[in-house]
Design goal:
It is a single chain. By secondary structure, this protein is of the alpha/beta class. The chain folds into 2 domains: about 190 residues, Spore Coat Polysaccharide Biosynthesis Protein SpsA, Chain A (Alpha-Beta Complex), CATH 3.90.550; about 80 residues, no CATH class. It contains 12 helices and 11 strands. Strand 1, helix 1 and strand 2 form a beta-alpha-beta unit. Helix 10 runs antiparallel to helix 11 and helix 10 packs antiparallel against helix 12. The chain is globular.
Length: about 280
């Protein structure tokens, strides 16, 4: 049985960024793997690039963009290995990175989801570990308070800036850019919730794992580079904000009940107004 199924969901990535990701996979050492690329944009140039880098990869084009969770599930259904990696197409890593993560999962059988240190291309650390969202910390974000107060205790706690990210530890949730899922987790939890079009789907899956008694672990001895938001930087800020609000409402209703969902719905006009204001300031 293969060690790892690598599932990459693509959507209109620049080909040079995508090539670096594919080549990182191709240079991986010390493990057996399969590469599955799910294309939400159905681009011929993506398929051509994949064929140039790998003759054995599986290419799964969707007829239209059905959302990230839907595309992930297409890849999960096709996967066959002992572990699965959900890998963002704008990532790069060293040849030993994947083997090291698989070795960790083989040794730590109580871990249900795992990731590593994630850096920007310039080497700066990304905030990739978080506590679970609450109504309070999400209201602070949606009300754009961090735009005025760069650091707040509520957001620092939510982003886990009160712990050492260079220490291997169990966390609530990890960034979905480099998300390892053992086969046993998939068998226990099932697939991703396709009610999320984009955003919060990986947080939801971490919450499902946590509630099922599985550990979510951040390994500090493995690192990757992540360009972060490479595809979504091309989209209008207002559209991205709408998707975030929609996904957050779904998450809150699913895990915290109707009241937070009602509060978020009632405040939506204010959130929209603030989103427009933030977009105007960002462009100025």
């Amino acid at each position: 049985m293969l060690d790892l199924s690598i599932v990459i969901v693509t959507f209109k990535e620049d080909l040079d960024v995508l090539r670096r990701c594919f080549e990182s996979v191709a240079k991986s050492q010390g493990l057996s793997y399969e590469l599955i690329v799910v294309d939400n944009a159905r681009r011929k140039d993506t398929e051509q690039l994949l064929s140039e880098v790998s003759s054995t990869a599986t290419y799964l084009p969707n007829p239209r963009n059905m959302g990230f969770a839907y595309a992930v599930n297409c890849g999960l259904r096709a996967s066959k290995a002992r572990h699965v990696l959900l890998l963002n197409p704008d990532t790069e890593f060293k040849p030993e990175a994947l083997k090291n993560m698989v070795d960790h999962l083989d040794a730590d059988t109580d871990v249900g989801i795992a990731s590593s240190i994630i850096r920007y291309p310039n080497g700066d650390l990304q905030d990739s570990i978080r506590r679970f969202p609450t109504l309070l910390n999400q209201l602070v974000i949606l009300l754009k308070i961090p735009h005025v107060l760069k650091r707040t205790r509520i957001i620092d706690r939510y982003m886990m800036r009160d712990v050492d990210p260079y220490t291997t530890q169990d966390v609530d949730s990890i960034m979905g850019a480099f998300m390892f899922i053992p086969r046993k987790t998939l068998e226990k939890l099932g697939l991703f919730d396709e009610r999320y079009f984009i955003w919060f789907e990986e947080v939801d899956y971490c919450k499902m794992a946590h509630d099922a008694g599985l550990k979510i672990r951040h390994y500090a001895d493995v690192e990757i580079l992540h360009h972060k938001g490479h595809s979504f930087n091309k989209l209008a800020t207002i559209k991205k904000q709408r998707w975030i609000r929609q996904s957050l409402r779904k998450y809150m209703k699913k895990h915290h009940g109707v009241l937070p969902w009602v509060i978020l719905w009632a405040l939506t006009p204010l959130f929209i107004l603030l989103a427009y204001g933030a977009a105007i300031i960002k462009r100025s």
